[in-house]
Design a protein that fits this description.
With 130 residues, the protein is of the alpha+beta class. The protein has helices at 3-7, 20-30, 57-71, 103-129, and strands at residues 12-15, 36-42, 76-82, 94-98. It has one domain (3-100): Ribonuclease H-like superfamily/Ribonuclease H (Nucleotidyltransferase, domain 5), CATH 3.30.420.10.
Length: 130
Amino acid sequence: MPAALVENSQVICEVWASNLEEEMRKIREIVLSYSYIAMDTEFPGVVVRPIGEFRSSIDYQYQLLRCNVDLLKIIQLGLTFTNEKGEYPSGINTWQFNFKFNLTEVFRKLLISWICRESEGSIRQAQTHC
């Protein structure tokens, strides 16, 4: 890790609908000198698991991630800016964009996934025992 990343402190700005335009203006200025961007995303979690055979555990993990990202909506996106030397800009250098999050919708999808999994098990049982 470059020394600059350790020495400089991160200053994080929370972005909501109310300050979106103002923070986007700041980012448009920062990116001119600090064009290296690290990105982090947050999703509600794991609500479904892929079924079937997989070539490897890596393939299973990829499918697990893909299924959940496809099904769920992002709840937060983080962007951190540095220059080619790994130095942060002074002041704000990380923006966390917060998206609308509906917990009821996540639970609904979780319930549907559970019902589907239970149905899948019943169907497999019926196929092997009938």
